[in-house]
Amino acid sequence: ETGNFKLSSAISLLQLEQMTPEQRDATLLPADCLLAGLQKVNLDSESAYYLQQGQSVWQAGLSEKGPVSLYGPEAVFLGLGEVTNEGKIAPKRLVLPAKNLTPSNP
Fold first, then answer.
1. Is the model's pLDDT at 31 over the cut of 70?
2. What pTM, to 2 d.p., does this model score?
3. To which H or E segment does residue 51 belong?
4. Is the pLDDT higher at 81 or at 30?
5. What residues have CB less than 8 Å from 75, skipping those under 6 apart?
6. How many CB atoms neighbour CB 18 within 10 A?
7. How far does Cα 106 stand from its chain's mean position?
8. CA atoms of 90 and 83, how far apart (whole Å)
9. Which end of the chain has less neighbouring CB within 10 Å, N or C?
């Protein structure tokens, strides 16, 4: 057992070889399962857009400094960020969402 991962949930190479590509895809865990212990921050579309451009953004109501998991509108996983001493969220490692996010008033 490592973190939230258990050997009993693992799939062997033999099992993978016998699966179709679609079945293999269905066994994949979402990327944000690695950040399960972190504070979740939900951003509006404008903040998510600017964060994806590499800019730090303000977010009210954050209680702790440190790493956070980031989500955009409709709970789209954006990646890993960090709450700075100034109370801003700085992007650290971002993933490309399936759809592009744009600010409401570019």
1. yes
2. 0.76
3. helix 45-52
4. 81
5. 42
6. 10
7. 24
8. 6
9. C
